[in-house]
Amino acid sequence: MCQYFVKKLLTIIPMLLAVSIMVFLALELMPIDPINYLASPDMAANAQNLEALRNKLGLNDPIWLRYIHWIGGMLHGDFGYSIVNGAKIGDLIALKLPATLELAGAALILSTVMGIGIGLISSIRQNSIIDYIGRVFGVIGNSIPQFFFGIVVIQLFSIKLGWLPLGGRVNPGDVTFWDRLPNLALPAFTMAIAMTATLLRYTRNSMLDVLNKDYIKTARSKGIPEWKVYTKHAFRNSLGPVLVILCFRLPMLVGGSVVIENIFAWPGIGSTLLQAVSANDYPVIMMITLMIAAAILLASFLVDVMTALLDPRIRFS
C-alpha cells in the first residue's frame, strides 16, 4: 500500500514542474514590461538607466535562464517581490492565505454537513416532500451565480435586517475567532451554497444506486435494523463519488474565492489575485497561480488515496 501511495505522490513533481513552465511562459509572453513599474519617471526618461536596470534584474537573460533563477529562488524560499509595492510575495501570501483558508474551511464544513445530510435524507425518504425540496435546491444552487447570491444575502441580512456585518474580516475590538464569526457567516454561506447543491445530488444518487444492490437486500433479509443498513452498508459504500467531489472542491474553494472575497471585502488570496491582475503585477500572479495548481494536484493525490482506501482492488491492480 505504501508503495502505491509513494508512486502517486512522486508523479506530482513532474506535473508541478510542467505547470510551472506553462505559467512562466504564459506570463513571459504577455505584453507587460515590469521596468515600467519599477523605474521612477526620472529614470524612465533615460534609456541607459532602463537598460542598466534590466541587466541588474536579469531581464535581458535568456528565458530559460530566467526560469531557472525563478524556480531556484522558490526552492530556496525566495518567491520574489511585487512590482507594484515592492513587498515580498512570501510575506504577502503568508498574510493573506490564513483568511482564505478560514473562509474555505468554514464553507467546506458547512457544505459537507448540509449536502451529505440532506442527500441522505432525500435518498432514504425518496419521493417525499423533503426529497422534492432537496432536488429543487440542488438545481437552484447550481444555477444561481455566486455573485448574485452574495448580493442577495447582503441586501437581506445586512441592509434590510441588519443582523450581520456588510463585509470585512475583522471589526475593531475583535480578538478571538468567535468575535469574527458574524463577519464569516455570509461569505462562508454564499460559498457553501453551490457545493452543497452538488454534494446533495451526488450523495442522493450514489445512495439510491447502492440501495438497489443485492447485498442491501440480503442485509435486510437477515433482519438487520434499517438504520444499520443505511449507515453501515449503504452509506459507507456510497462514499466514493462523494469523497471525489470533496477532494476536488478543496482547491476550487481557494481559487474560486475571487468573486466572494471581492463582494464581501474579504482580505484573502482571491482578492489579492484580482488586484494583481488589475495592476499587471505578474510575479504575484505567477506565484498564486502556481499555488492553486499545486493545490489541484494535491487534491488529485487525495482522490487516489481515498479511492484506494475505500476499494483495495485499485491499489492492488
UniProtKB/TrEMBL annotation:
TM segments?
A: 12-32, 103-124, 136-164, 184-203, 242-264, 284-310
One of its Pfam families is BPD_transp_1
Can you name a GO cellular component term? Answer: plasma membrane
Location in the cell reads: Cell membrane
> Which key words tag this protein in UniProt?
Cell membrane, Membrane, Transmembrane, Transmembrane helix, Transport
Coarsely, its chief localization is membrane
Q: What membrane topology is given? A: Multi-pass membrane protein
Where does the record place the ABC transmembrane type-1 domain?
97-303
Query: What GO biological process terms does the UniProt entry carry, in alphabetical order?
Result: transmembrane transport
Report the sequence similarity comment from the record.
Answer: Belongs to the binding-protein-dependent transport system permease family.
Name-wise, this protein is ABC transporter permease
